[in-house]
Write a structure and sequence with these properties.
Layout: H1 3-9, H2 23-34, E1 46-50, H3 53-59, E2 74-81, H4 91-109, E3 113-118, H5 122-129, E4 135-144, H6 150-153, H7 164-167
Helix pairs in contact: 2-4
This protein binds flavin mononucleotide.
Residues 11-12, 14, 63, 65-66, 68, 115-118, 139, 160 line the site of flavin mononucleotide.
């Protein structure tokens, strides 16, 4: 799958087959994450891989929209210094987003779906994963082979994203669009 096709078709997947990720797939996903460029090349991230079903079931309780973690093949917890900490630059989250998207796309190209889970109960997440007080987990990524093959192959939903004409200005705020942006 080429990059543009992957970007066009990429969708969040929340229902997975009950099958472990192949080791080479998991490694490729992690490798894609660690290869992301980061501000000043600081690479302020660690990734905790969770495959144990009991642990995934516990992690499904870290937030109101994290229930899908219970049915995934592997979760990767994205750990950084606390982005809300004193003097912590916004680039921490920019960098992590790049690593996360790399992982998501590397997975997608291998037929693996994924979806983020946002952490609301940080004490619970920390107690499950054991990262130290100076580290923080705002998001996990959940990976697995999609339960429905269709979720990998189906075209993007019409209306699923705002059109270019709504999100792009030229030269200056408010100046829209050559007609090509209107399709
Ligand atoms: C920062 C961020 C946090 C998200 N948190 C959750 C989450 O907690 N639970 C969930 O099911 N999806 C979560 N998502 C997935 C979004 O709901 C999904 O990207 C959006 O609905 C678009 O889905 P689509 O690509 O299938 O159109 C999150 C996405 C992002 C970018």
């Amino acid at each position: 799958m080429d990059v543009e096709e992957a970007l066009r078709k990429l969708r969040a997947v929340r229902r997975f087959r009950d099958a472990p990720l192949r080791d080479e797939d998991l490694r490729a996903i992690l490798d894609a994450g660690r290869r992301a460029g980061s501000s000043k090349n600081l690479q302020r991230w660690h990734f905790i891989v969770v495959r144990d079903r009991a642990t995934l079931t516990e992690l499904a309780k870290v937030g109101p929209f994290a229930g899908h973690l219970a049915g995934g093949a592997a979760a990767i917890a994205l750990i950084t210094p606390d982005p809300a900490g004193a003097d912590m630059p916004l680039s921490v989250t920019w960098d992590l987003g790049r690593a996360a998207q790399n992982m998501t796309l590397a997975a997608w190209a291998r037929g693996i779906g994924s979806v983020p889970a946002t952490v609301y109960d940080h004490d619970l997440c920390r107690s499950i994963l054991g990262y130290p007080p100076d580290q923080h987990c705002e998001y996990l990524l959940n990976f697995g082979y999609p339960a429905e093959e269709r979720s990998i192959t189906r075209p993007a939903r019409i209306g699923g994203r705002r059109p270019l004409v709504e999100v792009v200005y030229y030269e200056r705020w408010g100046a829209t669009a050559p007609s090509a942006d209107r399709s």
